Amino acid sequence: MADPKISFAETFLCSAFAACFAEFCTIPLDTAKVRLQLQRKAAGDAVSLPKYRGLLGTMATIAKEEGLSALWKGIIAGLHRQFIYGGLRIGLYEPVKTFLVGSDFVGDIPLYQKIFAALLTGALAIAVANPTDLVKVRLQAEGKLAAGIPRRYYGTLDAYYSIVRQEGLGALWTGLGPNIARNAIVNAAELASYDQVKQTILQIPGFTDNILTHLLAGLGAGFFAVCIGSPIDVVKSRMMGDSTYKNTIDCFAKTLKNEGFLAFYKGFLPNFSRLGTWNVIMFLTLEQAKKFFLREVIYD
């Protein structure tokens, strides 16, 4: 159980810091993932090759055409997102777990309770942070423009303002349905699997609560998150990057009809590279931040 000396505010700050640091380190991978997810198969043209091919190829194409800094497109909105979303989803996880099992509970918390707690915190956190996610995806989706064509947005603050002015305040919550579904599920896959994998590793003779354990648990969390969350992630990215879809079902149906089931796993390797790396960096940083700032680490 969580140590009572660790307050929600302290956990929130540690979680927000860890999430922001991981975001800054891995956003080039996320930009490549978004471009691959938004790339469509050319109708009636089976010969033409896709513009973006693979993780490294996509990153190289973006850097060549738009400059190296383009790989960090949306970083300000990404940091906004991680501070709010990362801080809330992780900061609330322990209190919600404790609430579900009761403060007098002794022993290992059941896996289903961990999953339920992470589903709740993921859904709540992204409902608050959805505008930041929308702006981040829109900025990442914009590639190199032809000469004379103005940019859709000229920065993060301009994107927030333009979306509200042109589409209304409610537009900041575009894609909220798939985003809640995606982030609740991915959060459950990440936090519950990290919790469970870490607990399992610590039961193996010779393993202790150290950096190696955190690294292995972080990789496990990233793998489970991508396997479970990829289809919803693709739908979420497409709805946020393209306003022509009517709703979640329309986006899912059109993608399935036009491109087949495998389209929902577009960018799988970049997604795993990104989420696996992100989870390792985030959980390692989180554990160390707790040690550094709070002078003791909280374990179940």
From TrEMBL:
Q: Does the keyword Transmembrane helix apply?
A: yes
Chief location of this protein within or outside the cell? mitochondrion
Pfam families hit by this protein: Mito_carr
Give an example GO cellular component term for this record: mitochondrial inner membrane
Name of this chain's protein: Uncoupling protein
Please state where this protein is localized: Mitochondrion inner membrane
Q: Which PANTHER family match?
A: MITOCHONDRIAL DICARBOXYLATE CARRIER-RELATED (PTHR45618)
Alphabetized, the UniProt keywords read: Membrane, Mitochondrion, Mitochondrion inner membrane, Repeat, Stress response, Transmembrane, Transmembrane helix, Transport
Q: What is the lineage of its organism?
A: Eukaryota, Viridiplantae, Streptophyta, Embryophyta, Tracheophyta
Instruction: Write out the ranges of the repeats annotated as Solcar.
Output: 6-99, 109-200, 209-292
Q: Mind listing the GO molecular function terms for this protein? A: amino acid transmembrane transporter activity
